[in-house]
Design brief:
Layout lengths: L18 E6 L8 H10 L3 E6 L9 H8 L19 E7 L1 H9 L5 H11 L3 E6 L1 E2 H4 L2 H11 L4 E3 L3 E3 L2 E3 L3 H12 L8 E6 L4 E4 L2 E3 L6 H12 L3 E6 L12 E3 L3 H14 L4 E4 L6 E3 L17 E3 L3 H11 L9 E8 L4 H14 L4 E6 L7 E8 L4 E6 H15 L1
Parallel strand pairs: 1-2, 1-3, 3-4, 4-6, 9-12, 9-14, 12-13, 14-17, 17-18
Antiparallel strand pairs: 5-8, 7-8, 10-11, 15-16, 18-19, 19-20
């Protein structure tokens, strides 16, 4: 059956049953709002667009009507369109003119009047400032933004800083931020530490040993936790998948660096759960040479074993560090090669005790290919789940966290 030209494919449901009032102002960034409206809908939102007269010089109401599947508000009528029942008012792009008008209490077009009404109703408002850097540095604007940031339910989404301009960020970034603000449920404001990506053991300045890992699963997991309201911190090795900009990312290279960062983060913040999905080397070269080793000579490398990060956490907790939560919910991963399902289940049960963790994901690298990712998920209650993809692994881990936290 042919889909409607206006239809979108649902990616997430974090904005299901949510209404977003998309307020568009007069900036070149307005050209991006067609994509933004459709991305909001891909997360499940209903979108109602409002345009200032200046915005209509950059984009037509017809375009946004197509993108939102709703009539666009370009002037106020007896229907009192400004008294919105939206869950969030999203001003994207937000110009200097509109931000300053809101602070002054001016309501002279559909957008500023909707903002005035929404502020009065304590509806959440998110701004995406988009302008030349010289305007962004205007002292009056800076003072007004500082004032707004102190107000309840008012948020600012960071623009891209390029070419002396504050540019419209990626639509995924904006929609993820909106999802994070509106999220409700057991993961709201829960701090979750995630390790992901491969680690490296340097041999000399140009050579290192590493392992097979893209870091994709950890990056996707951090994103999906964020849009459900959690506050993830990603400790990321040298992965090939770029992490997002809207949650903290700490880059590391070696197993020791990853261990040091994990222990540090557990001490400086109250972490509710930790997910150890990184491919941490079990062995690294015993010596790192300062000079490049000659290719004309045989290469012999001696290896030493690295400490297990999960076990080091338990050691520190037992001995001295009161800041590390003793109720920390821990999820571990165990990678095997060419093992039967029965062997994987047995190894997983052993890992729960050996690693002192609450949930373990056991998988076999010989069966992993792109999104095909067969795995067993086991927990301390004896439950065993058979999973077939990264998507299923992520969904199951989020469900485990929601049940535990």
């Amino acid at each position: 059956m042919m889909k409607s030209d206006q239809a979108v494919e649902l990616k997430f449901t974090t904005l299901k049953d949510k209404t977003i009032a998309l307020c568009v102002t007069g900036s070149i960034g307005a050209c991006e709002t067609i994509k933004l409206a459709r991305e909001l809908r891909r997360y499940g939102a209903s979108v109602q667009a409002y345009l200032t007269p200046s915005a209509e010089q950059f984009i037509t109401p017809l375009s946004l009507e197509w993108a939102t599947q709703q009539k666009v508000v370009t002037q106020l009528s007896g229907s009192a369109e400004h008294v919105t029942n939206a869950d969030l008012i999203l001003v994207a792009p937000a110009t200097l003119h509109t931000i300053n008008k809101m602070v002054l209490g001016l309501a002279d077009n559909p957008v500023t009047t909707t903002l005035a009404s929404g502020w009065g109703q304590e509806i959440s408002i998110a701004f995406v400032p988009t302008m030349h850097e010289s305007l962004a540095q205007n002292p009056v604007l800076k003072k007004n933004i500082s004032f707004l940031k102190k107000e309840k339910n008012i948020y600012f989404i960071e623009p891209k800083h390029e070419e002396s301009k504050e540019k419209f960020p990626e639509c995924e970034t904006i929609v993820s931020e909106v999802s994070h603000v509106l999220a409700q449920g057991p993961l709201k404001h829960k701090k979750i530490l995630i390790t992901a990506g491969p680690t490296r053991g340097p041999i000399d300045p140009v050579r290192y040993i590493s392992n097979f890992s893209t870091g994709e699963l950890g990056v996707r997991l951090a994103h999906e936790l964020y849009i459900r309201g959690a506050d993830p911190t990603l400790v990321y090795g040298s992965g090939s998948v770029s992490p997002h900009s809207f949650y903290p990312v700490i880059s590391v290279t070696t197993p020791q660096e990853m261990l040091d960062v994990v222990l540090s983060e557990l001490q400086v913040q109250k972490v509710h759960a930790a997910i150890f999905s990184a491919a941490v080397l079990d062995h690294v070269p015993a010596q790192t040479h300062d000079l490049k080793l000659s290719s004309a000579e045989p290469l012999e490398v001696q290896f030493v074993q690295t400490p297990k990060i999960i076990r080091e956490i338990d050691k520190v907790t037992r001995h001295s560090c009161e800041n590390i939560s003793k109720g920390l919910f821990k999820i571990g991963f165990k990678l095997e090669w060419k093992k039967s399902e029965e062997e994987l289940a047995r190894l997983g049960m052993k890992a729960l005790d050996a690693m002192n963790i609450d949930v373990v994901v056991v998988n076999d690298l010989s069966h992993i290919k792109d999104q095909i990712h067969p795995a067993l998920l086991l927990d301390r209650k004896g439950a065993v789940q058979k999973l077939q993809s990264k998507k299923e692994i992520i969904e199951s881990l989020i469900q485990s966290l929601e049940n535990a936290l």
